[in-house]
């Protein structure tokens, strides 16, 4: 899952990025409203962590701009203000959640997981496809009660497919969810991850289907 962190406090941004990356998220950083607006013109994110007080272009302007364009990406406001009025105002502008500083990283991660569940339409933290199960709280994949041993990139690919099970996931969109602008994933590397995953989820009833010219789809295939 790829997140955009918009925070002008570089020390706090670096700390949050390190912790969230350790939890398996891909993080793109923006240190000003201008940087965030530029990134949002060309990049797609699964969720945005947005500070309100930013240089030049503030967080509310970014939020208004997103919603005016019917961009429904989940937005979690991170603000130094715990005032009820500020919270209500930002939620009314289209924010999905609000977290006042200082906060505990465990609460932040729980709120991110909740945002991602709502965005995917899967409110149950346990997602299943055949005998393949994903616990979005523990971030553990299992098949027939055995935990799967996945590399970070394999995990990211399978999570993206699992959250959209039964739907086509575009190759470019899938590759984009694995890296920031400073990284790159070649089509060949993505194919290798898919090949490895097919072997690891074998006998789970779930199957990764290649749709030529479109992308991949995780589907449950019943055997008779």
UniProtKB/TrEMBL annotation:
Residue ranges of domain OmpR/PhoB-type in the record: 124-220
Domain Response regulatory: 2-116
Post-translational modification 4-aspartylphosphate, affected residues: 51
InterPro entries in alphabetical order: CheY-like_superfamily, OmpR/PhoB-type_DNA-bd, Sig_transdc_resp-reg_receiver, WalR-like, WH-like_DNA-bd_sf
DNA-binding in keyword set: yes
DNA-binding region(s), residue ranges: 124-220
Domain of life assignment: Bacteria
One record GO biological process: regulation of DNA-templated transcription
Keyword DNA-binding: yes
Protein keywords: DNA-binding, Phosphoprotein, Transcription, Transcription regulation
GO molecular function: phosphorelay response regulator activity; transcription cis-regulatory region binding
Any one annotated GO CC term: cytosol
Protein name in UniProt: Response regulators consisting of a CheY-like receiver domain and a winged-helix DNA-binding domain
């Amino acid at each position: 899952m790829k997140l955009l962190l918009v925070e002008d406090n570089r020390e706090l941004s670096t700390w949050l990025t390190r912790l969230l990356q350790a939890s398996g998220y891909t993080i793109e950083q923006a240190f000003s409203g201008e940087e965030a607006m530029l990134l949002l013109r060309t990049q797609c994110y699964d969720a945005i962590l947005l500070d309100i007080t930013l240089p030049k272009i503030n967080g509310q302007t970014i939020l208004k701009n997103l919603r005016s364009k019917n961009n429904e990406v989940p937005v979690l406001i991170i603000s130094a203000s715990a005032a009820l009025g500020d919270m209500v105002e930002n939620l009314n502008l289209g924010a999905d959640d609000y977290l006042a500083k200082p906060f505990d990283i465990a609460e932040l991660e729980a709120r991110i997981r909740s945002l991602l569940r709502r965005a995917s339409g899967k409110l149950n933290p346990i997602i299943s496809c055949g005998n393949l199960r994903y616990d979005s709280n523990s971030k553990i994949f299992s098949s027939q009660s055995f935990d799967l041993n996945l590399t970070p990139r394999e995990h990211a690919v399978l999570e993206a497919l699992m959250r959209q099970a039964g739907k086509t996931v575009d190759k470019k969109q899938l590759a984009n969810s694995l890296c920031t602008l400073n990284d790159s994933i070649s089509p060949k590397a993505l194919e290798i991850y898919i090949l490895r995953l097919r072997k690891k989820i074998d006998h789970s009833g779930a199957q990764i289907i290649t749709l030529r010219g479109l992308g991949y789809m995780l589907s449950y295939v019943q055997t008779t």
